[in-house]
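Exam prep: given the inputs below (a chain plus 2-oxo-3-(phosphonooxy)propanoic acid), describe the expected output before reading on.
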Amino acid sequence: MFKVLVSDPLSEWGLQKLIEAQDVQVDQKIGLSEQELIETISEYDALLVRSQTEVTAAVIEAATRLKAIGRAGVGVDNIDLPAATQKGIIVLNAPDGNTISTAEHSFAMMIALARRIPHAYFSMMQSEWDRKSFIGVELNQKVLGIIGLGRIGAEIAKRAKAFNMQVVAYDPFLTEERAKNLGVQAATIDELVRQSDFITVHTPLTKETRHLISSREFELMKQGARIINCARGGIIDERALLEALQMEKVAGAALDVFEVEPPINNPLLDHPHVIVTPHLGASTIEAQENVAFAVSEEILHVLRNEPFKNAVNLPSIPLNIREKLEPYFNLSESLGKFVAQTASGGLQEARVTYSGELTEFDTSSLSRSVLKGILSHHLGAGVNYVNAPHLAKSRGISFTEQKSPANRGFTNLITVTLKTNQDENRIAGTMINGYGSRIVKLDEYRIDIQPKGHLILIHHHDRPGAIGNVGALLGNNDINIATMQVGRRNVGGRAIMVLEIDRQVSAQVLDQLNDLSEIISVREIDLTQ
Ligand SMILES: NC(=O)C1=CN([C@@H]2O[C@H](COP(=O)(O)OP(=O)(O)OC[C@H]3O[C@@H](n4cnc5c(N)ncnc54)[C@H](O)[C@@H]3O)[C@@H](O)[C@H]2O)C=CC1
Ligand SMILES: O=C(O)C(=O)COP(=O)(O)O
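Solution:
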């Protein structure tokens, strides 16, 4: 039974799939302190949060069985991603579910700011009828600067066009084609800041975007510009914003998010030209159902070892590519496991080479599988797709991937070379239509074996009787040989045998094999897990 902890308020409807799953127990414990979370997290296989729960390094450290953290929303800045990645915990989000709600909220904030609706409402609540103090401005024909033209930014752009605004956008990943399709003018951040009457930010909060709008940018702005932040507190420098408001450089600001939430003693809240909401961008019935449903599904997939899509600490693979690569995952991992078991000494370098049709794809996910296979031989079950690159790096193992046009007669080929401080070993495998995966090369020897089960790899001298002696010895020890492959380069030279056997052999039998004449070395290869 998997145990899932929900530590922020999530839509009950959205959670249904998880609650109804026979193999899952869901506990909802809302508003836990960091200490309480640390004390309880070791019971859980998955944790589901929104933006309130701070999933700190200390929480992750205490999470001994956690496989996944699900974020019912977009921003994952409340989760210590490096700590999760290092521990091999998959962090998932629900990036599409709250786009429209947040875009609509940003637009609502822009209009409320332009027409001073909250101030007018507050005045009427004081029994006033003041029609002079709340003169606003139109959006019509104004320039809207959008910083971060992702999902939400793009929805804002569409709506702004309907209001007859001229839209300029800054996003380092904005292509000319996308700008054209959305009818926006691409600009640098300085150009955007200089031209815009309204500026709205829609980037994630990262090292690069922290204080993206600060004193320098406020100085460049048009007199009387208006600012909207419904993305993350900290993208706009709050101190610089307050100064710009006090100097009347900025005519108003609409804020849904703050550097510290909830904001305590934040002077911006007392400024007459600031309007605020308590991080409500995603707070609609629709968005909450969407994100809770999406993240519940993803958590179920991770727990049940099924494919999932929205991991933020794993490279994302488009569905059509994933379908093409799917058959290669087991092969890649088995090649890694196999070659690691043939090596002696400390690992130094691993290289994966893709040939044939595989050169057309982004194969980084397959490389992760190879690396997982290699490292799991040494480091056990703690290695997974998420932390394998980190573990290799932290142990000084260099890991490279390359593509080679030479396919050596195979329509696809994955070759793994593993270098240690004592030797270098190479293995190659392929997928054959209708036959599945095969290991086709070990160092310089051509072979043909299925990468599965218990295997014995023997290096020997190619002399009469060598193979018979091995067969007899295993037979005498009641070990059945399912298949056997022999490879040699020249008659009477060095050769290899790969035997598939029905069960694990004892160390004693391996020693006896080693002692047979003509045998150079014996290795047991376990590909059962
Ligand atoms: N107030 C709320 O309740 C909500 C806030 N958000 C916030 O909105 C942000 C945006 O969400 P989406 O549009 O769904 O994400 P997205 O990933 O689709 O878009 C983010 C865009 O920012 C761009 N970007 C990254 N670094 C940049 C930089 N230095 N300068 C300019 N652009 C940069 C990216 O290229 C991307 O196009 C989220 O990261 C989240 O923090 C999201 C949902 C609800
Ligand atoms: O999805 C996001 O990034 C949000 O900021 C929404 O936050 P929330 O889930 O409403 O706490």
